Amino acid sequence: MKGQEWYQTAEVAEEYDEKRFSRGGRLIDRREKRAVLEAIGPVDGERVLEIACGTGRFTVMLAERGADITGLDISEAMLQEGREKAHAAGVDDHLEFMRGDAARLPFPDDHFDVVFAMRFFHLADTPAKFLTEMARVSKDVVFFDTFNARSTRSLYNWLLPMGSRLYTRGQVERLVDGANLSLAGAEHDFILPYGFYRKIPDWVADPIRNLDVSVVDTPVGQPLASVSYWRTSV
């Protein structure tokens, strides 16, 4: 996994949310949470697994909506941030955070109703193995996002210290087929890469985002989207 050692440090975990989801990054957080909720539907009473849960921003959100949710991550420091977030939200008795390897999930087949991963596959060194494991433990929905090869993300990628794995639609479709999943839906968003929004204040980000949305909703804009959300079924 790219950046594994960097990702697991306490310093990175403590600053993770502030660096990525403050300023203009708040609108990214809102959009990603909406994408998750739209893809997996009502979760009250559903058994859910989040892969690479990080600081638990989705895990806690779904626990607040009644999910029986487990958040798995390789970083103990990130998990500790998640536990503190869950305690502050009053849902720490309704979810579980556990350290583990997404390539060898410690759960039986068909254990969860929903399995999802956000901000994960761009760092995955063996994406087929990870997606196959996600499919194995889900009995219904598998949801994930990717960063796209034919987009502004490819330019921004040069500036990243770790780089990111970028995907074409064809590559995603082959991954889905290889995991014996069926593609049930896809959304494409963000002409401008995430890093751009994180560098600007809210009052600048919001009108630029409105323009971004108007472009990505056109036939010309969709192929240029830097992020795709993929809903698949078992």
Sequence-ordered SSE layout with sheet pairings:
Layout: H1 4-7, H2 10-21, H3 25-40, E1 47-51, H4 57-64, E2 68-73, H5 76-89, E3 95-99, E4 112-117, H6 127-137, E5 138-148, H7 153-156, E6 166-167, H8 169-178, E7 182-189, H9 194-198, H10 202-216, E8 227-233
Parallel strand pairs: 1-2, 1-4, 2-3, 4-5, 5-6
Antiparallel strand pairs: 5-8, 7-8
GO molecular function: methyltransferase activity
Domain Methyltransferase: 48-139
InterPro entries: Methyltransf_25, SAM-dependent_MTases_sf
Could you characterize the architecture of this molecule?
By secondary structure, the chain is α/β, with parallel strands linked by helices. The protein has one domain: Vaccinia Virus protein VP39 (Rossmann fold). The chain contains ten helices and eight strands. It has helices at residues 4-7, 10-21, 25-40, 57-64, 76-89, 127-137, 153-156, 169-178, 194-198, 202-216, and strands spanning 47-51, 68-73, 95-99, 112-117, 138-148, 166-167, 182-189, 227-233. Strands 1, 2, 3, 4, 5, 6, 7 and 8 form an eight-stranded mixed sheet that branches. α7 (153-156) links the parallel β5 (138-148) and β6 (166-167). It starts with a helix and ends with a strand.
